[in-house]
Every structure is written in structure tokens, then in C-alpha cells.
């Protein structure tokens, strides 16, 4: 948990539930310690390496009516870039043209990300402020976040000023694997199967010749 995570996440209502459940004393110390430190929390090498290995995340925004909205964002591994110790960003691809996340972030900059690693039961939560940047506004930035290997129309860049983050408990995270993650395990099995099939074919041929 970064220093300022508790100052954002542990509201009075949250702290009330923590008091009832018996966890308030532990988390209150962290909240008070964070409140005494000015500024936002820098990403460490651990978070940077983790983000560089991801191919997706969930983005939460808040509308003008107060309703939360959560959207899945995906791309090639590493499409979520670390720009510096306090900033992350990505190229925003054309989707279903509803623009709910984009519109919400334009009106209210506060966002949250949940970045999952299902195979290893890891989850990084990030609080930050979003900026929507078009190619007309900053073509260099948008180009730096794009990847020509990915066939998608880039409409804008989204840049997040990171305020705080937390590594969540690994409990209850199911193990799920992408095709690419499974390939390293499936390839030897395919080779073994091909060898067995070739051996069977050779044995059948030998039996036919012996008849």
C-alpha cells in the first residue's frame, strides 16, 4: 500500500465499517501517516515492471450524475506505459463509439484502475487523475504510446497522474490464462503427441508389412 492510498480510500463511511469489523486501528495508522506526507506516491520499479507485462486492465470513471462506470481496456502486452514515476498512459483505441469513459474523464478527472495478473493471483489498484489528449493537441505523445504492430484506430491518448496505489490481497483471484500464456505449456504436449502419432503410424506400417 502506498503512503496516500488510505487518505483516498478510507473515507469516514469506510472507516465506520472498519471500526465495526475490527480493522480500523491498523488502517487508521496508515491513513494518518499518509496524510502527513505531501504530494502523490511515486511508482517503484516493482509497479513499473508489473505494468509493462500486462495486456489489459479495468478503468473506473464517474459520471456527472454520480454513477460509476467500469470498462475493460485491452491491447498488446505493455500497451499501458509508464511515462515517469508519477504518470502512466495508453493509446485509446476506437471501440463502440459510446465514449462513456472518455466523456466521464473529461468532466471528472478522478479515476481508478484495477490491473490484474490472473495466473499469479496479483492485483494492483491505482488512483489517479486522467487527462484526455488528442493527436491534434500532442501528436508526439500519442505516437509514443502507439504500437504499429497492433491493428487498431487510435483516437486519443489517456494520461493518468498517479496519486496512490495498493497491491490487493491475492485471495479469491481465479487462475485464468491467455492463449499466449498457455502456449509455453501446450507446445511440448503437441510435440509429444506428434511423436506418438508418428510412432503409431510406423508400428501400423510394420504390422501391415508383416501380414
Automatic annotation (TrEMBL):
InterPro entries recorded: Pyridox_Oxase_N, Split_barrel_FMN-bd
Pfam families to which the protein is assigned, alphabetical: PNPOx_N
Keyword Glycoprotein: no
SUPFAM superfamilies: FMN-binding split barrel (SSF50475)
Domain (Pyridoxamine 5'-phosphate oxidase N-terminal): residue spans on this chain: 44-139
Keyword Coiled coil: yes
Coiled-coil residue windows: 179-209
Keywords: Coiled coil
This protein's name: Pyridoxamine 5-phosphate oxidase
Annotated organism of origin: Mycolicibacter arupensis
Amino acid at each position: 500500500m502506498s503512503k496516500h492510498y488510505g487518505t483516498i480510500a478510507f473515507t469516514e463511511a469506510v472507516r465506520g465499517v472498519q471500526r465495526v469489523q475490527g480493522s480500523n486501528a491498523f488502517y487508521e495508522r496508515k491513513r494518518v501517516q499518509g496524510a502527513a506526507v505531501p504530494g502523490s506516491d511515486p511508482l517503484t520499479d516493482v509497479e513499473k515492471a508489473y505494468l509493462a507485462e500486462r495486456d489489459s486492465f479495468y478503468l473506473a470513471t464517474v459520471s456527472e450524475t454520480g454513477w460509476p462506470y467500469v470498462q475493460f481496456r485491452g491491447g498488446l502486452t505493455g500497451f499501458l506505459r509508464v511515462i515517469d514515476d508519477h504518470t502512466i498512459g495508453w493509446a485509446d483505441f476506437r471501440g463502440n463509439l459510446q465514449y462513456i469513459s472518455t466523456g466521464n474523464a473529461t468532466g471528472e478527472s478522478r479515476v481508478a484502475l484495477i490491473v490484474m495478473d490472473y495466473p499469479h493471483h496479483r492485483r494492483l489498484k491505482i488512483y489517479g487523475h486522467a487527462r484526455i489528449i488528442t493527436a491534434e493537441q500532442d501528436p508526439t505523445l500519442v505516437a509514443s504510446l502507439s504500437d504499429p504492430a497492433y491493428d487498431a484506430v487510435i483516437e486519443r491518448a489517456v494520461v493518468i497522474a498517479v496519486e496512490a496505489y495498493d497491491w490487493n490481497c491475492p485471495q479469491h483471484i481465479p487462475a485464468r490464462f491467455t492463449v499466449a500464456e498457455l502456449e509455453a505449456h501446450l507446445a511440448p504436449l503437441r510435440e509429444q503427441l506428434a511423436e506418438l502419432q508418428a510412432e503409431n503410424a510406423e508400428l501400423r506400417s510394420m504390422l501391415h508389412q508383416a501380414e
